[in-house]
Amino acid sequence: DAGVIQSPRHEVTEMGQEVTLRCKPISGHDYLFWYRQTMMRGLELLIYFNNNVPIDDSGMPEDRFSAKMPNASFSTLKIQPSEPRDSAVYFCASSLVGAGSNTEAFFGQGTRLTVV
Amino acid sequence: AQSVTQPDIHITVSEGASLELRCNYSYGATPYLFWYVQSPGQGLQLLLKYFSGDTLVQGIKGFEAEFKRSQSSFNLRKPSVHWSDAAEYFCAVGPFTGGGNKLTFGTGTQLKVEL
Fold first, then answer.
1. pLDDT tens-digit readout, B40-76
2. Cβ contact A45–B104 (<8 Å)
3. φ/ψ (deg, to 5) at B54
4. Average pLDDT along chain A
5. What ranges make up the beta strands (E) of chain A?
């Protein structure tokens, strides 16, 4: 498996524009997570899905952020409109359901977003 | 609420020296504990994890960590550091039920290795 795939790797956009980040989880994984990493706040969980259903979006900063998972192999994180304070590295991760030694989160390489 | 504290923001060690990175957690139940490493421009890679059993766990790249429930700690160690170990290291805690989901990360420790 190629692992968790995120696109684009880098995105530079102007304030006010819509930004869409994409993620392909590892095939067969039941959970998908979106994290944001900034110098000030470190790694924060934004939202996670179980079997394509959003379970907890309490980490989504505000209504400008939305996430979808239309099927088991694809998820998007959208910011509309974008602001400079949204500049960060956004990571997608996936994992298998259940407790046990096979449970760990596998991370993609991240999307570095810069809003100017 | 669960939380993770990594008290050392930066650590510098000489190549070949031993290493210990500290991690303290707060969690109301039996936790899953993880150490991840992040190289510049890369995603996070799992080094090791603890969920039950032997409190000393072995990971990849020669790393190990010891879970001490009485101290709420999960410190990462390596007996001899290599220059390629220079990276940022994150400790994380997650709920036991449902596996390592919804992780809470520490703020990270940046490791510099002097040749």
1. 888 899 999 988 888 999 999 999 999 999 999 999 9
2. yes
3. -55, 130
4. 91
5. 5-7, 10-13, 19-24, 31-38, 42-50, 53-56, 65-71, 74-79, 88-95, 106-107, 111-115
Whether residue B88 contacts residue B111, with contact meaning beta carbons closer than 8 Å, is answered with yes
CA A3 to chain centre: 15
Q: Which residue has the tokens 């109301």?
A: B28
Q: Are A58 and A5 in contact (CB under 8 A)?
A: no
Cβ–Cβ pairs < 8 A, chains A and B: 62
Token pair belonging to A101:
């030694």
Q: Tell me the β-bridge partners of B36.
A: B46, B90
Tracing tokens 């930066």 back to the chain, one arrives at B10
Q: Is B1 helix (H, G, I), strand (E, B) or coil?
A: coil
Best of A38, A57, A104, A106 to mutate (most B CBs within 10 Å, chain B): A104
Q: What is the pLDDT of residues A30-61, one digit of tens each?
A: 889 999 999 888 899 999 998 999 988 989 98
Instruction: Supply the DSSP symbol for B72.
Output: T
Largest CA distance in chain B: 43
Residues of chain B with Cβ-Cβ distance to A53 below 8 Å are none
Q: Would you call B48 helix, strand, or coil by DSSP?
A: strand
Contact (CB<8Å) A48/B101: yes
